[in-house]
Amino acid sequence: MRLIELQHITMTYQSGGRLHQSEVRAVRDVTLHIEQGECLALVGESGSGKSTLGRIAVGLEKPTEGRVLFKGHILDARKVDRQDRQALQMVYQNSFEAANPRFTASQVVEEPIRYFRLAPKNEWNQRILELLGRVGIPKDEAEKKTTEFSGGQLQRICIARALAARPELILLDEPLSSLDVSVQAQILNLLRHLKEEFGLTYLLISHDLETVYNIADRLAVMYAGRIVEEIDDIELFDSLRHPYTALLLGKDTDVEQKPAAEDKAVAGESDAAADDETGEIDATADDRTEGCVYANRCPYAEKRCFELVPELTEFEQGHRIACHHCR
Ligand code: SF4
Fold first, then answer.
1. What is the 8-class DSSP label of residue 104?
2. What residues contact 277, with CB distance under 8 A and at least 6 apart?
3. Three-class secondary structure assignment of 27-64
4. Whether pTM exceeds 0.85
5. Beta strands of 194-247 (E only): which ranges?
């Protein structure tokens, strides 16, 4: 069953003062769906629009255009009902910001049980201890303040809070990126086990393709507000080949044609973005209105890349790419 459907989502923000207003297109005409019980990973660099799209998917932001369907009905961010709010939970990157510093671990987990009236009061304590235990927080730590926990432990408590609401979908927005590598692996394992045990559906947002490989069922790569590549089965991971995906993976792509410098010169485009040595470029810099959003950085760009938007089309069964060369 399709749990979430995003249909032609566009999100535009106004920026600047009264005299010099400009538009920032965070998301451009994105259509995606999430099946019940699967983990869809949305991957891209900072500024690619993935967090905005995640917030739209769970009804926290209203898109400028397009609509979100949750279990077949329209999810309107201005009036999400209690049932849908309960069903759509979030776990964020920064657990220190997400958990009230005045609360104990048990108070954090109690919040959704109390707010959504999910159990009689005399059962709260047992339910809270069960959930904390399920994420690896021992009973005798339940009354410790959130400030006394490490980042990894606090992320476990935030996961328990999301679980307490009995969610149908959890938005996991970079849940590992502020943690040490060894702790990341533990949290990833925990999320994988919980998904199986509770039949959860995840929308996982990450900048790290290799990490999501270990948990995702399907994958979409986002750049400058557009989906540039999508696979319906993580088994197709090794076939990923869009030039931007290849950059994220740190590998050469096998698109047919090599750089065409004279074509770029004809198109009057700059190579500045491609010269970045860190690879950490803010994708919002590529606010192109014509052609491929990745053209300014792409080593394979040619004249048509600056003029024609490449549509997301089937490269092989279950694998779609938006690139003129990847045909
Ligand atoms: S359409 Fe052109 S610029 Fe865009 S990714 Fe493909 S080759 Fe590069």
1. B
2. none
3. EEEEEEEEECCCEEEEECCCCCCHHHHHHHHCCCCCCC
4. yes
5. 201-206, 218-223, 226-231
The tokens describing 259, both together, are 């750089």
The pick from 244, 292, 315 for probing ligand 1's pocket by mutation, whose C-beta has the most ligand atoms within 8 angstroms, reads 292
The amino acid present at 58, given as its one-letter code, is V
The 10s digit of each residue's pLDDT in 4-39 is 999 999 999 988 777 777 888 999 999 999 999 999
| Ligand 1 in reach of 264 Cβ (< 6 A) | no
Beta partners for residue 65, in sequence order:
10
Any ligand 1 atom below 6 A from CB of 160: no
Q: Give the CA angle between residues 19, 25, 28 to the nearest 5°.
A: 155
Assess whether the C-beta atom of 295 lies below 6 angstroms from ligand 1: yes
Strand ranges (E), the chain: 2-15, 22-35, 39-43, 65-70, 73-74, 88-91, 169-173, 201-206, 218-223, 226-231, 313-316, 319-321
